[in-house]
Amino acid sequence: MERTFMKGNEAIGEAAIRAGCRLYFGYPITPQNELLEYMAAHLPEAGGVFLQSESELAGISMLYGAVAAGKRAMISSSSPGISLMQEGLSFLASAELPGVIVNITRGGPGLGRITPAQSDYLQATKGGGHGDYNLIVLAPSSVQEMADLTTLAFELADKYRNPAMLLGDGIIGQMMETVTLPPAMDQGESKPWAATGCEGRERNLILSAPYTDQELMELNMRLQAKYARIKAAEQRAECEQMEDAEYGIVAFGISARLALAAVDDLRADGVKVGLIRPITLWPFPENAFRAYPKVRGYLVVEMNEGQMVQDVRLTVSDMVNGRVPGAAPTIRFLGHGGGYVPTATEIRERVMELARLLREAVGASEAVGAVRTASASGSVPAEGGRRTA
Amino acid sequence: MTDKVVFRKPQCLTDKAFLYCPGCSHGIAHRLVAEAIDELGIRGRTVCVSSIGCSVRCWRNFDLDVVQGAHGRGLAVATGLKRALPDKVVFTYQGDGDLAAIGMAETVHAAARGEAITVIFVNNAVFGATGGQMAPTTLVGQKTTTYPKGRDPGHVGMPIKVSEMLAQLPATAYIAREALSSPKHVLAAKKAVRRAFEVQLAGGGFAMVELLAACPINLKLPPVDALKWVEENMVRYYPLGELKSPPAAPPARAAGGTGVGATGGEGAGGRTCAGGGCQ
Ligand SMILES: Cc1ncc(C[n+]2csc(CCOP(=O)(O)OP(=O)(O)O)c2C)c(N)n1
Ligand code: SF4
Ligand SMILES: [Mg+2]
């Protein structure tokens, strides 16, 4: 194991090469250019092909061709470029092709700015393009994870023949940390389904469009069955200090690093709070929430206008529907799009506010001698979660 | 008495019927490609990249490994494949809407990079699959469903001469245009198709054959008149012949067994496309 000091974007590149990635396609866009340039400098040394595409639209189709040929391949971009790739992502999913896509996001909508943001959560986790499909989405929160989750992305993509996305942001992409690099691997198992010329075997077809209506229905059923397998086997989350937690913070990527600082502060003040950090954004780590049924309230912290919070609500309401009503945790949101970065102080204040509201709510219901049935959105006043400063 | 075989299906074609309309040139184009691959003995190491258009299901007919790309992205898909498999033979099969409208950027850049890919470009001057709308190659005055009074250059400009345009790019190795409108022209087209594969095999760069084709359904003409229309109108605007050929390329050997009229097949009457609506 090799320990070194690297930028997040470069760690992805190095880990990809070590994971056997042999073709890389990319089009310049900040804040991921270091990755493009790292691959330009180092992939040819490893016997691979670096190719700067004329657009992201072309790049994702180049990736489609490379993975159809059975090779490990990667493409990277940032938000506007990923929007252009949605056609290709839908095609990769329909043709059941692997391939790793890196999105080092920036603030949108539109051209936006290169300020850090997590505003592409919904695009990444709900498919993004047309049709019923999902990408496997991994969210690193450190430079170490930029490397580790790149390796994992290649493995999961191959294992399930499904595109996998690494969803990072400009802060982790640009920052430097020490990282232990994974050992070099080969290119994964050989792929008997790949289109390489039919010498000595039956021909292989890599198709996006099934031939009949019936086959399209079957493709959808096959994809959904695969997604169910992925949901069952691949949920990943980091849970910090959740065992006795009354309150949970939910945050992914760089937001989770800031949230962790707030957890430490609050714990020092005796507040029983923990952190759930989804690592797989799709499949969403529902099991992590089910593991802590005693949590009374969650604060979801994101660098957007409230995207992952929708999945937290769904998860929690599913939990509540499946058991005794009356115990729904309250969910609050702290976040903002367009370049907002939460501070540990802000997060701490919002957790204290949540704790206070829950105390008052319990006090009020006890005062009238009635146990109120709380819905998933809780018995406290409606959202006040937006940062107003 | 023993039967003598005078005509047989190329090995590269499956037993499946063509699903094209009667008189459609796609069947001839398929046959020429299959014959060239057979003759060069490269079936086992060839990958076809299909496009979106009436030929979207050419995998039913080409008995080859086939990768189906998104509409217009054929040359980007083929770039990824060929870069991954430099020792294999990669070709795209694309219509004029696919290659020259939505996919023009991918086309120009693959040509500019000199990707060692063979391109079979079937120009029928119309969007066949979607029901006869105007293509970038639609002739001036030609009536389409989106411009029923005919193409007006004042409104939408002149048709694009793709071959001439790509021949300008230094990295293109072989560019030729032929017509699938008569036996004479089909024989010439066969030579060009084969040459476009030979150039790739010889390690040359981008090789494209533009095949002027008939879409009788959307021209609203009987098959024979549609072929006449190609010859009288398309050939006039899109001159035939080699626009560019590598000087050191191997000489094209005599083409054999070209099946003129191969569109017929078992499926001549079994049209499913009806010139519209399915894509
Ligand atoms: C992104 C996208 N836009 C539009 C279409 C609809 N579409 C399918 S085929 C086609 C045009 C095909 O024309 P051409 O390439 O000339 O092929 P032909 O059918 O004439 O052989 C269009 C517009 C599509 N499938 N995908
Ligand atoms: S619509 Fe035109 S191009 Fe399509 S199959 Fe019919 S004749 Fe051929
Ligand atoms: Mg056409």
Annotation keywords:
heterodimer, A: 389 residues, alpha/beta, Rossmann fold, five-stranded mixed beta sheet, 15 strands, globular, disordered C terminus, B: 279 residues, 9 helices, binds thiamine diphosphate, binds iron/sulfur cluster, binds magnesium ion
Describe this structure in words.
The complex is a heterodimer of chains A (389) and B (279). Helix content of chain A is 40%, strand content 18%. Chain A has two domains: 2-233, 3-Layer(aba) Sandwich (Rossmann fold); 237-388, Rossmann fold, CATH 3.40.50.920. Chain A has helices at 8-18, 33-42, 56-68, 79-84, 86-94, 121-125, 143-160, 170-174, 213-233, 253-268, 286-290, 308-321, 344-367, and strands spanning 2-7, 23-26, 49-52, 73-77, 100-105, 136-138, 164-169, 176-181, 205-206, 237-240, 247-250, 273-278, 280-282, 297-302, 330-335. Chain A is globular, with a radius of gyration of 22 Å. In chain A, helix 1 packs parallel to helix 7. Chain A has 13 helices and 15 strands. By secondary structure, chain B is an alpha/beta fold. In chain B, 33% of the residues lie in helices and 15% in strands. Chain B is built from nine helices and seven strands; from the N terminus they run αββαβααβααβαβααβ. In chain B, helix 3 (96-102) packs across helix 4 (104-113). The longest helix of chain B is centred in the C-terminal third of the chain and has 19 residues, at 183-201. Chain B is globular.
Helix/strand layout:
The complex is a heterodimer of chains A (389) and B (279).
Chain A: E1 2-7, H1 8-18, E2 23-26, H2 33-42, E3 49-52, H3 56-68, E4 73-77, H4 79-84, H5 86-94, E5 100-105, H6 121-125, E6 136-138, H7 143-160, E7 164-169, H8 170-174, E8 176-181, E9 205-206, H9 213-233, E10 237-240, E11 247-250, H10 253-268, E12 273-278, E13 280-282, H11 286-290, E14 297-302, H12 308-321, E15 330-335, H13 344-367
Parallel strand pairs in A: 2-3, 2-4, 4-5, 5-7, 6-7, 11-12, 11-14, 14-15
Antiparallel strand pairs in A: 1-8, 6-13, 10-12
Helix pairs in contact in A: 1-2, 1-7, 3-5, 10-13
Chain B: H1 26-40, E1 46-50, E2 65-68, H2 74-84, E3 89-95, H3 96-102, H4 104-113, E4 118-123, H5 153-156, H6 162-167, E5 172-179, H7 183-201, E6 206-212, H8 216-219, H9 223-237, E7 241-244
Parallel strand pairs in B: 1-2, 1-3, 3-4, 4-6, 5-6
Antiparallel strand pairs in B: 5-7
Helix pairs in contact in B: 1-7, 3-4
The structure holds thiamine diphosphate, iron/sulfur cluster and magnesium ion (MG).
The site of iron/sulfur cluster has 14 residues of chain B, from α8.
